[in-house]
Fold:
Amino acid sequence: MNGLAASLRSRTALGGSLEAAREYAIVVIFFTLFLVLTFSASHFFTRVNLLNNLESGATYGPVAVALTLLLIVGEFDLSVGASFILAGIVAAELQSHVGTWPALLIGILPAVVVGLVNGIAVTYFRVNSFIATLATSLMVVGIGTRVTRGAQKFISAPSFAILGNDKGLGVDYFIWIFIGFALACGFVLWRMKLGRWLYATGGNPEAARLSGINIRWVKIGAFTFSGFAAGVAGVIFASRTTTAIAGNGIEEVVFPAFAAVVVGGTSVQGGRGAIWRTVLGILFLECIRNGFNLLEVDTFWQPVMEGGIILVAVAIDSLSRRSA
Structure:
C-alpha cells in the first residue's frame, strides 16, 4: 500500500514537472536564445533587426493566433495556407474593378467561407479535420490556379501597397494588426466565457456538451475564425508584395504557424494553450532564423533544429498528459 502511494506521488510529481516544462519552457528558451544572440551577433540587438524579426513573424502571426484557438478545441486546419493565397488573389483581381480597400475586404470573404465549410464538414459530417482541410486546401488551390491561370499577377496601383508597407508610429500597419489579433484572442481566452467554452470543448467534449455548451458551434466558430485570420494575413501579404500567384501556402504559412503554436506549448490533443506562448513561439523561431543568418551558420541546420524542437515539445505534452 505504501509502495502504491509512493508510486502515485512520484507519478504526480513527474506530471507536475512536465506540465511546468510545457507551460514555461518557451519563456526560458526564448530569453536564453535572445541573450546568446545579443552577445554573439553584433547586429542582432538593433532596432532595424528586431523590427525585421517582428515583421517576418507578423506575416503569419494572425494565422498562428487563430490556429492556437483551433488546436485548443482539438482540431487542425491545413487549408489556412491555401486560403491565405486565395485571399490575395481575389483582392488583386478585384482591385482594378472596385478599388483597393473594397478589394482587400472582399478578398477576406472566400477564406471565411472555406473556414465555415471546414467547420461544417468536421462537426456535422464528422470528417477528420486533417482530411477535411486537406480536401478543401486542394480545392482552393485549384480555384486559385484557375483564376490566375497559373500566372503571377502584379498590382501597380500605389494605394494597394499601403496596408502592407506603410507605417504608424514607426511600425508597419500589419504589425499593429498582428498585435491586435494577439491581444483580442488572448483576452477572449483569459477573461471571456467563450474562452472557457473553447478550453472545455477541447479538454473534455462530452462533459462540455453535458454542461450545455454547443460544441458544434464552438468548433465551427473556431474554424471560421481560422479562415478569417488566413484571409486577413493573405490580403496583407498581397499588399506587401503587390503580387499574387496560386499556391498552397504550406511552406510559407502552415509550417511556421503550426511550429510556433506547438513550440509555444499549445497541446495538439486539445484543451491546453495560450496566445502569449504562441507569440513567444513566433519570436523564438524568427530569432533562430535571424541568428543563423547573422552567424553565417549553414542553413541546412535550421529546419533540423526546428523539427527537433517541435518533436521535443509534442513529446513533453504527451508525457505530461500520461503522467497527470
